[in-house]
């Protein structure tokens, strides 16, 4: 708790300032106060938490799972073969140059309002940091260490499992800390541009009704979801990558 004391204090100050400014402006459809947003979230708790939040979490979960599998597979392939790296890496970079807001409507056209149009958007946003970070992690091992293991008779498989894989774990968890918030953004954007359920869809629908508090309520929920998920990743990292704290 002490570790996050400063963040909590800054957060409280931020919300107090926001509350004061919102009350001075007194235009809830433009800038609702935090108290109004929480009140609205409580009023709409059943539809937000029982209908739209599960829909968004499902998109995030599927997209993030596929991104992890795809990203790690590409990173391993590039680390094992220089030819593969030269062929794949530029394509991986190019996928991040096309605006997602331009592609999302196309995916809706191809897949309709099914879950897969939203999952693909989430994958495109999240797989890049996983691929790049894990690839850098696999390359981070010192050549001297690899040569030492080979000298002792280690096979390439053993070098990968005993040296490269453990060395890449901190990079993997760092990638997850980036990918998880991005999966929230990806799911929300895809729902905003074309969906029949989800927090992004609900936020957009409330905008047409000029209900500022209802527009902000899903955003606040998504922010808390991202914070909780990143905190869980931090806990897992501290338990799995214990050796980093001992070095």
Automatic annotation (TrEMBL):
<comment type="similarity">
    <text>Belongs to the binding-protein-dependent transport system permease family.</text>
</comment>
<feature type="transmembrane region" description="Helical">
    <location>
        <begin position="115"/>
        <end position="135"/>
    </location>
</feature>
<keyword id="KW-0813">Transport</keyword>
<feature type="transmembrane region" description="Helical">
    <location>
        <begin position="51"/>
        <end position="76"/>
    </location>
</feature>
<feature type="transmembrane region" description="Helical">
    <location>
        <begin position="88"/>
        <end position="109"/>
    </location>
</feature>
<keyword id="KW-0472">Membrane</keyword>
<dbReference type="InterPro" id="IPR035906">
    <property type="entry name" value="MetI-like_sf"/>
</dbReference>
<dbReference type="GO" id="GO:0005886">
    <property type="term" value="C:plasma membrane"/>
</dbReference>
<dbReference type="InterPro" id="IPR000515">
    <property type="entry name" value="MetI-like"/>
</dbReference>
<protein>
    <submittedName>
        <fullName>Putative aliphatic sulfonates transport permease protein SsuC</fullName>
    </submittedName>
</protein>
<feature type="domain" description="ABC transmembrane type-1">
    <location>
        <begin position="53"/>
        <end position="237"/>
    </location>
</feature>
<feature type="transmembrane region" description="Helical">
    <location>
        <begin position="171"/>
        <end position="193"/>
    </location>
</feature>
<feature type="transmembrane region" description="Helical">
    <location>
        <begin position="7"/>
        <end position="31"/>
    </location>
</feature>
<keyword id="KW-1133">Transmembrane helix</keyword>
<keyword id="KW-0812">Transmembrane</keyword>
<feature type="transmembrane region" description="Helical">
    <location>
        <begin position="213"/>
        <end position="236"/>
    </location>
</feature>
<dbReference type="Pfam" id="PF00528">
    <property type="entry name" value="BPD_transp_1"/>
</dbReference>
<keyword id="KW-1003">Cell membrane</keyword>
<dbReference type="GO" id="GO:0055085">
    <property type="term" value="P:transmembrane transport"/>
</dbReference>
């Amino acid at each position: 708790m002490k570790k996050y004391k400063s963040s909590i204090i800054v957060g409280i100050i931020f919300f107090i300032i926001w509350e004061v400014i919102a009350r001075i402006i007194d235009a809830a459809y433009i800038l609702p106060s935090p108290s109004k947003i929480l009140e609205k979230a409580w009023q709409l708790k059943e539809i937000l938490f029982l209908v739209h939040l599960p829909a968004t979490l499902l998109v995030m979960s599927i997209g993030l799972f596929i991104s992890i599998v795809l990203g790690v597979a590409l990173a391993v392939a590039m680390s094992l073969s220089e030819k593969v790296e030269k062929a794949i890496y530029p394509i991986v970079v190019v996928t991040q140059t096309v605006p997602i807001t331009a592609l999302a409507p196309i995916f809706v056209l191809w897949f309709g309002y099914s879950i897969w149009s939203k999952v693909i958007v989430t994958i495109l946003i999240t797989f890049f940091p996983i691929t790049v970070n894990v690839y850098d992690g696999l390359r981070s091992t010192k050549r001297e260490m690899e040569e030492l293991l080979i000298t002792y008779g280690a096979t390439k498989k053993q070098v990968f499992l005993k040296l490269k894989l453990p060395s890449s774990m901190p990079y993997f968890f760092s990638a997850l800390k980036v990918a998880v918030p991005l999966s929230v953004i990806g799911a929300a954007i895809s729902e905003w541009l074309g969906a029949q359920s989800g927090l992004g869809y609900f936020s957009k629908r409330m905008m047409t009704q000029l209900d500022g508090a209802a527009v902000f309520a899903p955003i606040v929920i998504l922010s808390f979801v991202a914070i909780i998920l990143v905190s869980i990743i931090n806990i897992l990292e501290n338990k799995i990558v214990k050796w980093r704290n001992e070095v």
